[in-house]
Amino acid sequence: MVRGIAIHRSPFVEPNSSGAALRQPSTLEPYALGKVPIVVPPQAPALAPLVRSVSIVEDVLPSRRERMVPTGGTNLLINLDADEFRTYDGLGNGRVRRVRGAVLAGPRDRPTVIDTEEQRWLLIVDFLPGGALPFLVAPPWETSNQWVELHDLWGADGGVLRERLLGVGSEIWSATSGPIEEAAALAFSEPPEIAERIRQSRALHATVCRAVAARFAEAGVTVPAPRAAFYAYPDFAPWREHLARRHGVTTGAGLARHLLDRYGMGVLPGSAFGEPAAALRLRVATGLLYGDTGEQREHALAASDPIALPWIAAALARLEAILAGLGPR
């Protein structure tokens, strides 16, 4: 069972070592190995007299030509992987016929040769005998042994059906999973242990970020006092003439590159966030100063004075040395 849906062998697919050949078994047998199609009856009562089942088949198959056994039934086939179906006939099945990836496969009294490589992701509607008639604008015998593009059958609505299905699928598959939803619900209820963790994290970040900003200010760089930000945002405008004369730095991007190349210090220029290129403002993240390991970070979280911890004190001392080497002497 998958979320209450019974998993059976698809009524259209016979899995084997080389790929999938479409067929119609007499019963829906439990499926244990290989691909696992999802087969459900129609959910709308109005479709119950018309549709036997709706199947989703997904697998990665090698490229191999196989025969679809004639069934006399009518199927709606949507290729959700590629907007194409290929069938083969002629001498040695050397002639290929290509149609778009949304078709009505009419009743067949002869085998149809397909390429299993494109049978990777299919939606299949299996009509009951005569069930397709309300959906046809031509006599049913005109679709026999043919794969008719839905655009030709239903006009514009048929032409966009595949795209609409993919759009719906995109919305469904981007939804949050069940376990994540439960974790989020727990977090939003703000239990005491999570509230305490947030309080400790906020205090650690504020302490370290303010210490970093203080080092810039003490070196003579203009820096706003951090207020609930992820970055310190120093402005090296007071050093503009010095940076240009001594280091050839005239832009924020140039300053960021110089710090990386000369000192191994990674920062982002303000121009990456919409600032003018000439602005000498940088965004300096402080989160990596809390520790290189989980153990160090947990220790920093619980410390009453995280600035005194050896690894954080060493990082701040390294920043002081970089600013001393970069700035006016």
Description:
The chain contains 8 helices and 15 strands. The protein is of the alpha+beta class. The protein folds into 2 domains: 163 residues, no CATH class; 142 residues, Aspartate Aminotransferase, domain 1 (Alpha-Beta Complex), CATH 3.90.1150.10. The strands form 4 sheets. The chain has a 6-stranded antiparallel sheet with strand order 3-4-11-6-9-12. Strand 7 and strand 8 form a beta hairpin. Helix 4 runs parallel beside helix 8. The protein is elongated and about 90 Å long. The N terminus is likely disordered.
What's the number of extended β-strand segments?
Answer: 15
Q: Give the terminus-to-terminus CA distance.
A: 73 Å
Summed over residues and divided by their number, the pLDDT gives a mean of: 82
Domain unit count: 2
Order of neighbouring strands in the sheet with most strands:
3-4-11-6-9-12
Structural class: alpha+beta
Percent range for helical residues?
A: 25-40%
Largest sheet: 6 strands, antiparallel
